[in-house]
Amino acid sequence: MSTPTSADPKVGFVSLGCPKALVDSERILTQLRAEGYRVVPEYANADVVVVNTCGFIDSAVEESLEAIGEAMAENGKVVVTGCLGKRADLISDRFPEVLSISGPQDYNSVMKAIHAQVPPKHDPFFDLLPPQGVKLTPRHYAYLKISEGCNHRCSFCIIPSMRGDLRSRPVNEVLAEAERLVRSGVKELLVVSQDTSAYGVDQRYASYPWKGRQVETRMTGLVRELGEFGAWVRLHYVYPYPYVDQVIPMMAEGRVLPYLDIPFQHASPSVLKAMKRPAHAEKVLDRLKAWREQCPSLTIRSTFIVGFPGETEADFQTLLEFLEEAQLDRVGCFTYSPVEGATANSLADPVPAELAQERFERFMELQSAISEQRLRSRIGGVEPVLIDEIDADGALGRSRSDAPEIDGVVRVHDGHGLMPGQIVEVRIDQSDAHDLAGHLAEGR
Ligand code: SF4
After folding, report:
1. Which ligand 1 atom minimizes the distance to the CA of 276?
2. How far apart are CA 322 and CA 317, in angstroms?
3. Which long-range contacts (CB under 8 A, 24 or more apart) does 395-401 make?
4. Which of 57, 145, 194 gets mutated to test ligand 1 (max ligand atoms within 8 A of its CB)?
């Protein structure tokens, strides 16, 4: 393998935003490495800097503009890409000197701009890349992006206008990537998209050959096959359509993690209608009950928005009652904030910021109590824990109920001798509203 030298062209890289943007960054970084570029941590030494931006909410826009400003000040040769690239005027008005601006997944434009600034070093040995490409996540887990774009038009969201309609990757391509990742040491695959339940709709669920059989480009086919690799498989951004029912038995059998990340966003029918949410008419509580009966260890994670325009006190009460009834395990909540370009901005009856904040606090108070009680019920049990890091107090890992970054952790008090990526059995002996703690179970 060729060793990087100080003569290699150098690229600084900043990656902001969601896991989908992270996957874009990984593809660009893999391409850079394949062409002999060196990625350097500091701007001053770089020949060019790439900023992969996020434009989802106003605070993300500001963070992206600040990152571009910093790269301009410290280096001056800056290529901007990602979601905010769709709003090129905003960037070029503030930073007319940037070298190029492109939107998400526009890898070609990014590479073209880098080539124009600093040509690649020809290196015939360079196909000796790690087989899993360059990952920004720790080696033992990886995001698996199954599609781009979205066919829905939620009124608060501008992702479809930035990323376009749903385009699913053929199932054999996704499975080949997953297999490569697992072979290279990945222990947990996090399936991401904008709408995982819709996977394959755009391809009319086309079948592709995989390991001597035909597999449909469809969530159920994908999940069944991913379950063959022996890694943890975690499903994000699933909507509660009836055919999700077919995935639950696979969770009960242990083929994939008993974990569903379903962004409900609200529970009041009128707010969901104003939000134009997918699956808003489904009987969610009945469905959750049936799923838990089939798979009692199922963890449900969700996110909600309070203070959406037109949300009345009665709507908010409906949401609190839903929370009480649904007993969700992991919940994130945001107060509504307008996003430039979103249709929700023109809706009547905005909720004053103080009232939205007050509802947020009431929501969180109720959910913390639910979460605390649900976590407490796990004390005394023995659970598999995937170790993420070792520190002075032992090890930190995650149970099957915890996705990285967004959910809780499990502290393993006597885990000093463990290694990241190991899966160990832990007896849980402590809990709070977010996290668990325990000791290695005897006879592991
Ligand atoms: S489902 Fe709605 S919120 Fe999610 S990406 Fe599509 S339009 Fe946006």
Report:
1. 2
2. 8
3. 397/424, 397/426, 399/426, 399/436, 400/232, 400/257, 400/258, 400/259, 400/297, 400/299, 401/259, 401/299, 401/329, 401/330
4. 194
pLDDT of 114 > 70? The answer is: yes
Nearest residue by C-alpha to atom 8 in ligand 1? 157
Q: What is the pLDDT of residue 130?
A: 57
**Mutation choice for ligand 1 from 154, 155, 273, CB with most ligand atoms inside 8 A:** 154
Q: Is the pLDDT of residue 361 over 70?
A: yes
* Owner of token pair 């196909």: 127
Which are the contacts of 301, defined by CB distance < 8 A and separation ≥ 6? 259, 260, 261, 262, 328, 329, 330, 331, 332, 403, 406, 407
Enter the tokens of residue 314: 């009665």
How many helices, marked H, and strands, marked E, lie in the chain?
12, 20
99 vs 18: which has the higher pLDDT: 99
Q: 81: part of which helix (H) or strand (E)? A: strand 78-82
| Ligand 1 centroid to residue 135 C-alpha, Å | 26
Task: Kindly report, residue by residue over 287-313, the tens digit of the pLDDT.
Answer: 999 999 999 999 999 999 999 999 999
Query: For ligand 1, what atom is nearest to the CA of residue 277?
Result: 2
Q: What is the pLDDT of residue 282?
A: 66
- What pLDDT, in 10s, does the model give residues 201-228? 999 999 999 999 999 999 999 999 999 9
